[in-house]
Write a structure and sequence with these properties.
Layout lengths: L1 H10 L3 E5 L2 E5 L7 H9 L1 H9 L6 H7 L9 E3 L4 H9 L5 E3 L8 H4 L2 H8 L3 E4 L2 E4 H10 L9 E5 H4 L31 H5 L4 E5 L16 E8 L2 E6 L39 E5 L4 E4 L4 E6 L3 E8 L5 H14 L8 H26 L2
Parallel strand pairs: 3-4
Antiparallel strand pairs: 1-2, 4-12, 5-6, 7-8, 8-14, 9-12, 9-14, 10-11, 10-13
Length: 366
């Protein structure tokens, strides 16, 4: 009986839930053996059906078996192997903070606001459509307060603007080693090919009190790694299952209409009161993994310097390919009045990406 199998998982403190029609799980380190994982895969449909059924006669018992998204916290872990990362966080699409992933980076001991001001002050950066000398922007960062926060430096390409600093952020993150964005077989027409080949590696700098301007999840349902180099930052995350409460711009958008989740207008966004945030503070030397489709935003607790990169694997390929197919079809403006042709093109793109995903997955397994 499936209930007995689920009960066995409970004894191992394995939490199960349904998210977006998919089975999700969270388990303590080393509790899920290969045999148990195989059984979960084989009995997936049974488990999904079981979790979907009401169990009114024993609410406390079943409540301990079934984890609700609002009860999920963000683990902080160290000494995590790639295999453990993949099984516990990457494939189940669960966020995690890894405390020692970048412990060998030179940047941890050298990158400060003053470092960028003194060594790269003459470089020009764009912040919220305004151009600044970096030295002048750093002054704003150091003067930033909760009451008068500065703007947020983002979308700043490290390989393009700070090529010589790439050596400061080596070795490459262990947990991004199977990143399909780096494959020469993947071509994304809307993306800068050089930035794609560097996994969209970007620099983030902001001052105390600064907030990331929008609640969002990363474009094309890409995973994100944010490596905190200097200062502390508070992340607020929402599981994808809570999307209906977060007012996306439209059904396919990765951006929320809510301008400030810390001071929401509940008359304009009344459903937001039902959303349950997950908060975690990320400190210097720590790396947070934000999985595909997880809504998030940040608030700086101190002046902050971080590095962000994206990741694409088999775990988020399906969502990525759906997003990319939609974008490619929408870009074909000359076919707008030829729905039949658009349907054929969409089918061909989808089929091509499906086959490419299978090929990339086969290369990973070799």
């Amino acid at each position: 009986m499936v209930d007995k199998f689920v009960s066995e998982l409970q004894q191992l403190d394995v939490k199960l839930w349904i998210e977006g029609g998919n089975l999700r799980y969270k388990a303590p380190k080393e509790k899920l053996t290969p045999d148990l994982l195989a059984q979960m895969k084989d009995r997936k449909e049974e488990i999904l059906n079981f979790l979907s059924q009401p169990h009114p006669t024993n609410t406390n018992y079943y409540g301990s078996l079934i984890a609700k998204p609002e009860n999920i916290t963000v683990d902080k872990v160290a000494n995590l192997s790639y295999k453990e990362f993949a099984s516990r966080y990457l494939n189940p699409l669960q966020p995690v903070v890894i405390t020692d992933a970048i412990q060998d980076w030179k940047a941890l001991s050298t990158w400060t606001p003053e470092f960028f001001k003194n060594n790269y002050g003459s470089k020009e950066v764009t912040v919220d459509t305004q151009r600044y000398k970096l030295r002048n922007f750093i002054d704003l960062v150091l003067a930033s307060t909760e009451e008068k926060p500065c703007s947020y430096l983002k979308d700043t390409d490290i390989p393009g603007l700070f090529t010589e600093l790439l050596a400061d952020i080596e070795p490459t993150l262990l947990y991004s080693q199977y990143n399909w964005l780096l494959s020469p077989m993947l071509y994304i027409p809307a993306a800068d090919p050089v930035k794609q080949r560097n996994a969209f590696l970007e620099l983030l700098i902001a001052g105390q009190g600064t907030k990331f301007p929008i609640l969002h999840f990363d474009y094309w349902h890409l995973h994100a790694f944010i490596m905190q180099v200097y200062g502390e930052k508070e992340f607020t995350l929402f599981s994808p299952v809570q999307t209906e409460y977060l007012y996306p711009v439209d059904m396919s958008s990765n951006r929320s209409l809510i301008p400030d989740i810390h001071q929401p207008d509940l008359e304009q966004f009344p459903l937001f009161v039902k959303a349950t945030p997950i908060k975690v503070i990320v400190k210097p030397g720590e790396t947070i993994f934000v999985p595909s489709g997880w809504w998030h935003t940040t608030r700086m607790l101190t002046p902050s310097i971080a590095v962000t990169m994206n990741c694409l694997t088999n775990s988020n390929w399906d969502k990525f390919s759906q997003d990319l197919t939609r974008d490619l079809v929408n870009s074909l403006t000359s076919f707008k009045n030829h729905q039949g042709k658009l349907t054929i093109i969409e089918s061909n793109i989808s089929s091509y990406l499906d086959n490419l995903g299978k090929l990339l997955a086969s290369l990973d397994s070799n």
